[in-house]
C-alpha cells in the first residue's frame, strides 16, 4: 500500500511545549519506553509510590498469563496491596497536597445559563455524603450499583461514592434505551439504580425516570430484577427549569422503591471512612458491544486502573497544575471514566464537565466554552470535528482560542481532512494533535503520541505508550517484521487492561486470547509503515463504529428481526461524512409483506427503541434474498460492497446463488 503524499508530512512538536514537558523529546520517550518493557517492576513501582497504600504490595507490580495453552488467562497488579481509589483521587489531594480549594470541575449545563464550579474539597464532601446514602440504602462492598445519568456533577459524586465504599459502579450511557439499560442491570445484578428526573439534550427534553422505570419493569418481567431501590436526582426540576410551559415533566413515582436524592443527601453526614480494598478488587463494570450481540461487562480493578489512567493522563496531555482540561466525551463511555473522572482527578486537574451538545444553542458552543474557561487541553472525537467542520471557520473566529496548547482525538480513525482542520483551524497550527488509540478493554491509551516528543503523521496513532508491547500478526499468527498490515495484538499486559468479562471468564478468554495464543487481540486491523508508525485501519470483526461508538452487527440484526414483517436481516457499515460509518441494513421480508416507506420508518424506529438513538440505521434496503455460502453463512463482504456501490466484487464462487447479487444491486439505496 502506498502512503498518500499528504499523509507523509510530519508535524514536529512546538518548541514552547518542550520547556516544562514531562517527556520533552523523542529520545526521552524511547528511553522511558525501553525501561518500561525491560524493567516493568521498577517502572511501575515508581508510579505507584506517588499514591497512598494502606498496605504495601506483597506480589510483583504485574503478574500474568496471556497464553491459553498454558492455563487460565489472568492479570494481577500489586497483589496484597490495600488501597482505595476515592481516597487517592480526593482525600490524598485535599489532605496531603493542599488542593482543597482548587477547582476540580467547571460544570457547564446544556444551557449556557447553568454552570457551577466544584472544588476538590466540595467534591470530597458530596462524595462522602453520597457514600453514606448508598450505605443507608444497603449497598455494601462488592455490590453493583447501576447509574443512568446525564453529564451532571452527581454522576461523578455517585461513581466516586461507589469507589469509596467498594461498590462496583456500572454506568449506562443515558442515551441508551430502556431495553439496553435493563439488559445491563440484569447482567450486573445491581441492587440499586441511580437516575435523574429528566434532562435536556439540546432542545429535547428526555424523561429519564420514565425510561428507567420501563427498564425496571422489563427486568421484573424477566423475573430477574435485583434492583430494590432507585435513587432519583432532581436535576430537571431544580436546575433546568425556566418557567416555560414546555418544561412540564411528569415524574412517575413508586414510593416503595424510589428515593429523592436531595431528601436523603440533606441529612447525610460528610464523614465516611473509605473501605480499604485489595489491589485486584473490582472498581467498575462497563458494558461494551460484543460480536454475538450480547454486551460484555468489561471489568476493571482498583490499583492497576489507578496507575494506568493517572499516568496516561499526565503524559499524553502533558498535564501541569495550571491547566484547564476538557474532554467532551460522556462519562457513560470509557473515555469519560478514564479521562473525565479518574485520570484527571488522580492528577489534581481542573476539568470542564459539559452536559450539552456541540450545536446548542449555537454551533460555536465548543469554542465559546474554550474561551470562557481558557481551556488549555482539549480532547474530542473525530465525529464531532467533522460535524463542526461543516459550519466553516466563522463560528470559531468569534472566540479567543489562544489558551489551547494540546488537542486530542479518540474513538475512531481520524481522516486527514479532519486532522488538518483540527490542527489548522482549531489549534491555529500551534497545538500538537494526540490521536489516542485505545478501547474499553484497555482502560487507557495504548497507542498514542506524546505531545512534546512525538513527530506526528496525520491519521496515525504513532507509537505505544509505556508498558505496551504491540505487534502485528498475519492470518496464520505469524508476526510481521517492519512494514506490513494485519491484526493488531499485544504481547503483554499493562496495569490498566481489563481483568475479565463479568461473570463470564470463558467469554473473556475466547474473545481476546483464543485466536492467537500468547497475545491479546484488539479486533482492529493495523498497518506499520517504514518509520514504525502504527495506523489503525478499523475493525476486522463484526463490529461497526458509528460516531466513535462501537456496536455489533448482531445486536442491530436482532433488533431488526423483531419486526413482525422481517424474516432475516444483515447489517454492514457504509462510510458517512460525519459519523465515520453508518448502518446499512438489508432486510428480507416475510412472504406477502410489502416493502414500503412506512415499513422502513417502522424498522428504523424499532432499532432506535431497542438499542438507542446512536444505533438508528441510515439505510434500509429490501433484500428478496441475501448472498449466502452453500453452508448458509451470509457473505458480509459482498453486502458491504453493495452498500458502497463497489461493482468489482471479485470471486463469487462461494455463493450458493450468484444471481442474488445483481438483484441487490438493482435495489440499492443511494441516499438516506
Ligand atoms: C474501538 C474501541 C477508546 C475510547 C472510545 C472507544 C476504535 C478508538 C481510535 C483511534 C482508530 C480508534 C477502535 C477500537 N478506536 N480510538 N484513535 N484510532 N480507531 O472505545 O467503544 O471500546 O471502542 O474504537 O476500533 O477497537 P470502544
From TrEMBL:
Coiled coil location: none
Catalysed reactions listed for this entry: acetate + ATP + CoA = acetyl-CoA + AMP + diphosphate; propanoate + ATP + CoA = propanoyl-CoA + AMP + diphosphate
Presence of the UniProt keyword Translocase in the record: no
Domain AMP-binding enzyme C-terminal: 555-633
Residues annotated as domain AMP-dependent synthetase/ligase: 100-500
Gene Ontology terms: biological process: acetyl-CoA biosynthetic process from acetate; lipid metabolic process
PROSITE patterns: AMP_BINDING
Domain annotation Acetyl-coenzyme A synthetase N-terminal: ranges: 29-89
The entry's keywords: ATP-binding, Ligase, Lipid metabolism, Nucleotide-binding
EC number(s) stated in the UniProt entry for this protein: 6.2.1.1
InterPro entries: Ac_CoA_lig, ACAS_N, AMP-bd_C, AMP-bd_C_sf, AMP-binding_CS, AMP-dep_synth/lig_dom, ANL_N_sf
NCBIfam families the UniProt entry points to: Ac_CoA_lig_AcsA, PRK00174.1
Record's subunit section: Monomer. Interacts with TFEB. Interacts with the 'Thr-172' phosphorylated form of PRKAA2. Interacts with CREBBP.
PANTHER family for the chain: ACETYL-COENZYME A SYNTHETASE
Family named by the database record: Belongs to the ATP-dependent AMP-binding enzyme family.
Stated name of the protein: Acetyl-coenzyme A synthetase
Organism annotation: Zoarces viviparus
Amino acid at each position: 500500500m502506498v502512503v498518500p503524499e499528504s499523509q507523509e508530512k510530519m508535524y514536529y512538536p512546538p518548541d514552547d511545549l518542550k520547556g516544562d514537558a514531562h517527556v520533552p523529546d523523542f529520545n526521552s520517550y524511547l528511553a522511558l519506553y525501553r525501561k518500561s518493557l525491560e524493567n516493568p517492576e521498577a517502572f511501575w513501582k515508581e508510579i505507584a509510590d506517588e499514591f497512598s497504600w494502606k498496605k504495601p504490595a506483597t506480589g510483583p507490580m504485574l503478574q500474568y498469563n496471556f497464553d491459553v495453552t498454558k492455563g487460565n488467562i489472568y492479570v494481577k497488579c500489586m497483589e496484597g496491596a490495600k488501597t482505595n481509589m476515592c481516597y487517592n483521587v480526593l482525600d490524598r489531594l485535599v489532605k496531603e497536597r493542599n488542593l482543597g480549594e482548587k477547582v476540580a470541575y467547571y460544570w457547564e449545563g446544556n444551557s449556557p445559563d447553568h454552570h457551577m464550579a466544584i472544588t476538590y474539597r466540595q467534591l470530597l464532601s458530596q462524595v462522602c455524603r453520597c457514600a453514606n446514602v448508598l450505605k443507608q440504602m444497603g449497598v455494601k462492598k462488592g455490590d453493583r450499583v447501576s447509574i443512568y445519568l446525564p453529564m451532571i456533577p452527581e454522576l461523578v459524586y455517585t461513581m466516586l461514592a461507589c469507589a469509596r465504599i467498594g461498590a462496583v459502579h456500572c454506568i449506562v450511557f443515558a442515551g441508551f434505551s430502556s431495553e439496553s439499560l435493563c439488559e445491563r442491570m440484569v447482567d450486573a445484578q445491581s441492587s440499586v439504580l441511580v437516575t435523574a428526573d429528566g434532562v435536556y439534550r439540546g432542545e429535547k427534553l428526555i424523561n429519564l425516570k420514565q425510561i428507567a422505570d420501563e427498564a425496571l419493569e422489563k427486568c421484573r418481567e424477566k423475573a430477574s430484577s435485583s434492583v430494590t431501590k432507585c435513587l432519583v436526582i432532581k436535576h430537571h426540576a431544580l436546575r433546568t427549569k425556566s418557567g416555560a410551559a414546555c418544561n412540564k415533566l411528569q415524574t412517575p413515582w413508586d414510593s416503595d422503591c424510589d428515593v429523592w436524592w436531595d431528601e436523603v443527601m440533606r441529612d447525610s453526614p460528610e464523614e465516611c471512612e473509605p473501605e480499604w480494598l485489595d489491589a485486584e478488587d473490582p472498581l467498575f463494570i462497563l458494558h461494551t458491544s460484543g460480536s454475538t450481540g450480547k454486551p460484555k461487562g468489561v471489568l476493571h480493578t482498583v490499583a492497576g486502573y489507578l496507575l494506568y489512567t493517572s499516568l496516561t493522563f499526565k503524559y499524553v496531555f502533558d498535564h501541569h497544575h495550571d491547566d484547564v482540561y476538557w474532554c467532551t466525551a460522556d462519562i457513560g463511555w470509557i473515555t469519560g471514566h478514564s479521562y473525565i473522572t479518574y485520570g484527571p482527578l488522580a492528577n489534581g486537574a481542573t476539568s470542564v464537565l459539559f452536559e450539552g451538545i456541540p450545536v446548542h444553542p449555537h454551533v460555536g458552543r465548543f469554542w465559546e466554552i474554550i474561551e470562557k474557561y481558557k481551556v488549555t487541553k482539549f480532547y474530542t472525537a473525530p465525529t464531532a470535528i467533522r460535524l463542526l467542520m461543516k459550519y466553516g471557520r466563522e463560528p470559531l473566529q468569534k472566540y479567543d482560542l489562544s489558551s489551547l496548547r494540546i488537542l486530542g482525538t479518540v474513538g475512531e480513525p481520524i481522516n486527514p481532512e479532519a486532522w488538518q482542520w483540527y490542527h489548522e483551524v482549531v489549534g491555529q497550527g500551534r497545538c500538537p494533535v494526540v490521536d489516542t488509540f485505545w478501547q474499553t478493554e484497555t482502560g487507557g491509551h495504548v497507542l498514542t503520541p506524546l505531545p512534546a516528543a512525538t513527530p506526528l503523521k496525520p491519521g496515525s496513532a504513532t507509537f505505544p505508550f509505556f508498558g505496551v508491547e504491540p505487534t502485528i500478526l498475519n492470518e496464520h499468527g505469524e508476526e510481521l517484521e517492519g512494514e506490513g498490515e494485519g491484526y493488531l495484538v499485544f504481547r503483554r499486559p499493562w496495569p490498566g487492561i481489563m481483568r475479565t468479562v463479568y461473570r463470564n471468564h470463558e467469554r473473556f478468554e475466547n474473545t481476546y486470547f483464543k485466536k492467537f495464543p500468547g497475545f491479546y487481540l484488539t479486533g482492529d486491523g493495523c498497518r506499520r509503515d517504514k518509520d514504525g508508525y502504527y495506523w489503525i485501519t478499523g475493525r476486522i470483526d463484526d463490529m461497526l463504529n458509528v460516531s466513535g461508538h462501537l456496536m455489533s452487527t448482531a445486536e442491530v440484526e436482532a433488533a431488526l428481526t423483531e419486526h413482525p414483517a422481517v424474516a432475516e436481516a444483515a447489517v454492514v457499515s457504509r462510510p458517512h461524512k460525519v459519523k465515520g460509518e453508518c448502518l446499512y441494513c438489508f432486510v428480507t421480508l416475510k412472504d406477502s409483506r410489502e416493502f414500503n416507506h412506512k415499513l422502513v420508518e417502522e424498522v428504523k424506529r424499532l432499532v432506535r427503541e431497542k438499542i438507542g438513538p446512536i444505533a438508528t440505521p441510515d439505510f434500509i434496503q429490501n433484500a428478496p434474498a441475501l448472498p449466502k455460502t452453500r453452508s448458509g453463512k451470509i457473505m458480509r463482504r459482498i453486502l458491504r460492497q453493495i452498500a458502497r456501490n463497489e461493482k468489482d466484487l471479485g470471486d463469487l464462487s462461494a455463493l450458493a446463488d450468484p444471481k442474488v447479487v445483481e438483484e441487490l444491486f438493482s435495489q440499492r439505496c443511494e441516499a438516506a
